[in-house]
Predict the 3D structure of the following.
Amino acid sequence: MANACFSILAQVLLAPQEKLLSDLLELAQKLEKENYSLKQEVRHSSQGLEDQQQHYSHLTTQLEHLQSHLTHMEKMSMLGQMVAGIAHEINNPITFIYGNLPYIEEHVQDLLKVLQAYQGNSRESIVATLESVDIAFIQEDLPRIVDSMKLGADRVRELVLTLRNFYRLDEPEMKAADLHEGIEDTLLLLRHRYKSEIEIVKELDNIPPVECHINQINQVMMNLLSNAIDALLESDISQPKQIIIETRLLSSNHLCISISDNGPGVALGIQSRLFEPFFTTKPIGLGTGLGLSICHQIITETHGGKIYCCSSPGEGTTFRVELPIRQKHFETAEVLSETKPLSP
Ligand SMILES: Nc1ncnc2c1ncn2[C@@H]1O[C@H](COP(=O)(O)OP(=O)(O)OP(=O)(O)O)[C@@H](O)[C@H]1O
Ligand SMILES: [Mg+2]
């Protein structure tokens, strides 16, 4: 355009006046046309810009809808996982209560028989009944069963409270608690499952009270012990079935709890998946695969500890939990090994 103007101007300087006038007119017309088409272009592109702007704002609205939908779905899935987790945890103590009912029933039947014999007042029948009923065993076993059922009921109540306080789970302050007491409670709850078939060996160190949410740590013990019992009851190993519970002081602010069984072990191919939510090798209805993922969350996220599995297939499994004793050292805690050694 500029070149064209210069060449016309050059001609203007050289040409006669009429020619000069017509060329000037022509130039003016050209300029006007150019101007018009430029204006058109600007109008089109500003229209295009407006269209694009509308399109983008439409997309932004859609994106916002999608985001809020995703947040909602995320909340629902968290809620679903939480409910599944709580249902999983409630299932354990309910099973103890339910599992103990037949024994209570048996003992109560025996005691009623004795009572009836006394009511009949015949000396022979009283002696015969007392001989047929193991009163000494009932005296010893009945309070234990009732204790275990009471603990089960307490655990259910605590879990329901946990459900109510779910969104404030991290707020209630931790308290110094006796881990050994928690282990004893848990063993009592599981007694009906391991009773005659599995020997429990305790190698307990002299550990101080640990600052923790004891209900949650008990939940971890419950899951690890239940898994060990499941593994042993399913296996047909020739040697006596055994679970070893060990506690050990690691340093002035760390201790570890190990739960080892001499069951079938964990196949190498699945060792890295054990802590994934919903990972299970148990048949549908027998395992949800949530136990270890709940343990992992409680130990690492809530208590700043570590949990890992050491297993050699065919030789047994050890789950090792490492915990800080005082939580104020949480951030400066010694770095504890993240690796999962494969041999116990
Ligand atoms: N002591 C163990 N010995 C062998 N395998 C184990 C042991 N502990 C856990 N596992 C394996 O880890 C898997 C996951 O365990 P997790 O506790 O998360 O779920 P689950 O026991 O299958 O189901 P749930 O805990 O809901 O009953 C188990 O299915 C089992 O294959
Ligand atoms: Mg389990």
